[in-house]
Design a protein that fits this description.
Chain lengths: 406, 288
């Protein structure tokens, strides 16, 4: 009895859903004439959900600004921007299916890559197959771009552009640093950047006394940290995401670990890390691809970096981080490329992206032959008095590097 | 000295693991329900402690006193109104129901608290005690002592009180307990309520130690599951033994073969136990 009633409800609600989907479909078809649809597969649910929210903030801000200005100018006609989101539930194989579904069924014109290097690489095979110009807003690892693909572009420079300037600053400012201990989250980006750090350290004559990976979802690092403490390195370099780095930092304080230099990537680039870590974040150094203190005068829709920061603050009431800025600039770059191509033809827009050489609020943008940006100079910064202070590049330097993390 | 430090770390962590697992073990052992909402209860308890401290300046120690009855009522009602309806159905039905409830609670927390990571930082910080180069964080020590106290209270409750004896009786033989006049449905609800109260208290204590986010619930649930299999179901001492064994294996494994393989090692141990000693270290045969 109950089962048959349930089955009836399921049938009724199922047909209602279908009817609603049909209505929605016809509504979007009606306005498809003067709209450009950008597909954005994102991990909206699951462990990577916070990252998806950040990306969405960037895309939405760009779409809002572009539409406020009347839309994208394609050969004299203005087109509105529509971002089509799809959730791949933090599941990389599903990001590939979602990408294919967006291209074949959702009639999107252009794509943003899914989150992170791993998913962006997996999904790029699909967008390449359909010759769909794609900008990956959060993929830095060179393995994403060494596949010889023509339609994939990325806004993050290779990982070594973060670790090399950092090592050089520390070598210059703290000559007593002779030993570094590296602890990396066993995940594509955190591990790749730790490996680059190992190379940078060796190239600069710093001994790597410890190099280990920790598993994703590790709940306790006390044994690992005790071991690192017993090796007495002057530099401790740890990679991971906000959760990992907060936990590790807390346990470092618990174990009374001190070092001349402590570097963490990528947590300190995010405001929630700085707030949650509080006093224990003091003097932690880091590097990322962008910083709100940068001062570029862009030719994109956002113009000056300060204008982008102002718009972002007005909409979200918080400072943008590099992930949000990268998502916004990805949209702005598509806009520049489409306007330059004067057409929605995928190949023409792809060629416009490939030949792009323009200044943006994100910095100078020029893509290498592999599609990865090669014109940026990513900033190195340090948390001082609960605020990120830029140490490099010199043009936007805000303060001096401070030694000692207690 | 490193060996002593690793050992001490493991002992403290073992007690925390036991604290995470004990409510889960009670519910699994007595009701034969694999309570997938347990991890989210812990996170909710952590938010309670965080919120109380952040907004009202109430110390987590007082929050502990509030958390226990609040979560007990929550668990009691959940069992009375929902789980009791399907308690006699095959285990997959209760598993699916708690899975669904977990999705609802977890996503509600993501909606209200956002998925950002928070940290409960006591002011002034509790610091660490160091003795001959061996360092023990005070907050972990206090959490360990509280975990042991909670475990002891539960032990006393099960051994000495009338309700406790009824819970044990239902666990041993449901049908016989019914014949002896035990109101099984109410005992189930009390046991689930106790499980929830222990999860809530564990959450308050964990808030001092781990970052707080709805996304950490699966990590807590995973640990609780392993601890129960290792230690044995339904018994108070089993959860403690399981927690200590897991922490020791992780700590020593991480030092000897690297932190990336510590989790692998603990799951290998889990499989070995499932094959060789399915009732766990201290569990009785028939309750695996």
């Amino acid at each position: 009895m109950v089962q048959s009633r349930l089955a009836r409800y399921a049938r009724i609600s199922g047909s209602l859903l279908l009817a609603m989907a049909g209505l929605a479909g016809s509504a979007s078809l009606a306005s498809a004439e003067d709209v450009i649809r950008f597909g954005a597969p994102l991990p909206i649910t699951g462990p990577l959900a916070p990252e998806a929210v950040k990306q969405q903030m960037g895309y939405n801000l760009w779409a809002e600004e572009a539409n406020k200005a009347g839309g994208i100018n394609v050969g004299g006609k203005k087109y509105k921007v529509e971002i089509v989101y799809a959730d791949y539930q933090s599941n990389t194989p599903r990001s590939v299916q979602t990408t294919e579904q967006m291209i074949t069924q959702d009639n999107i014109n252009f794509m943003f890559g899914p989150f992170g290097s791993g998913a962006a690489k997996a999904a790029s095979t699909i967008s390449e197959k359909y010759k769909m110009p794609t900008i990956a807003a959060s993929a830095s690892s060179s393995q994403v771009y060494d596949q010889g693909y023509k339609y994939l572009f990325g806004t993050f420079t290779p990982n070594d552009t973060l670790t090399t300037p950092l090592t050089q600053i520390i070598k210059a400012k703290a000559p007593e640093v002779k030993k570094v201990a590296i602890l990396a989250r066993n995940d594509l980006f955190p591990l790749a950047i730790a490996q680059e750090m190992e190379k940078s350290a060796k190239a600069n004559g710093i001994e790597v006394t410890y190099f280990e990976k920790y598993a994703i979802n590790t709940l306790d690092h006390s044994a690992t940290l005790s071991q690192i403490k017993s090796l007495a390195p002057q530099w401790i370099f740890i990679t991971g995401y906000t959760n990992d780095l907060l936990l590790i930092r807390k346990q470092m304080v618990d174990q009374q670990m001190k070092a001349a230099v402590v570097t963490m990537i990528a947590g300190p680039a995010y405001q929630d890390f700085i707030e949650a870590a509080g006093q224990s974040a003091e003097n932690i150094s880091s590097a990322s691809w962008w910083h709100p203190a940068e001062q570029y005068d862009g030719k994109d829709i956002f113009g000056k970096t300060s204008n982008f920061v102002k718009l972002f603050k007005a909409k979200y009431n918080s400072d943008p981080d590099y992930g949000q800025a990268s998502a916004a600039v990805s949209g702005a770059l598509f806009q520049l490329a489409i306007e330059k191509a004067g057409s929605l033809d995928r190949d023409k827009v792809r060629d416009a992206l490939a030949s792009m050489d323009v200044m943006t609020f994100w910095g100078p943008v020029k893509f290498g032959t592999n599609g990865q940006i090669n014109s940026l100079e990513p900033p190195v910064f340090q948390i001082q008095n609960q605020k990120p202070v830029v140490l490099f590049p010199d043009a936007i330097k805000q303060g001096e590097f401070k030694l000692g993390v207690n | 000295m490193l060996a002593v430090q690793v050992l001490i770390n493991a002992l403290v962590l073992g007690c925390l693991y036991a604290c995470i697992a004990i409510g889960f073990s009670l519910v699994w052992g007595v009701l034969n329900v694999i309570n997938l909402i347990h991890g989210s209860f812990i996170v909710l308890g952590a938010y309670l402690a965080w919120g109380a401290y952040q907004w009202a300046g109430i110390s987590p120690w007082y929050a502990l006193v509030v958390a226990a009855p609040v979560f007990f009522v929550l668990g009691y009602l959940l069992q009375r109104l929902l789980l009791n309806r399907v308690i006699t159905a095959p285990v997959l039905v209760t598993l699916t129901l708690t899975f669904g409830l977990d999705l609802i609670l977890n996503n509600a927390m993501i909606y209200y608290f956002k998925a950002d990571y928070r940290k409960l930082t006591l002011n002034p910080p509790t610091g660490s005690i160091s003795l001959f180069d061996v360092v023990v964080p005070v907050d972990r020590l206090i959490a360990t002592a509280s975990a042991l106290a909670l475990t002891g209270l539960l032990y006393l409750l099960l051994r000495r009180s009338k309700v406790g004896r009824a819970i044990v009786a239902v666990r041993l033989d449901r049908d016989a307990a019914v014949l002896m006049g035990v109101d099984v449905k109410s005992i189930y609800a009390i046991a689930f309520g106790l499980g929830a109260a222990l999860a809530g208290c564990a959450g308050v204590l964990m808030a001092l130690i781990f970052p707080i986010s709805p996304l950490t619930s699966s990590a807590y649930l995973g640990k609780a599951f392993v601890v129960c299999v290792l230690g044995g179901l339904g018994s108070v001492s089993g959860a403690l033994a399981g927690g200590l064994l897991l922490a020791l294996v992780e700590g020593i494994g991480s030092t000897l073969i690297g932190p990336a393989h510590a989790t692998t090692l603990s799951f290998v141990l889990l499989i070995v136990f499932l094959v060789v000693r399915p009732q766990g270290l201290l569990g009785r045969k028939g309750f695996e």
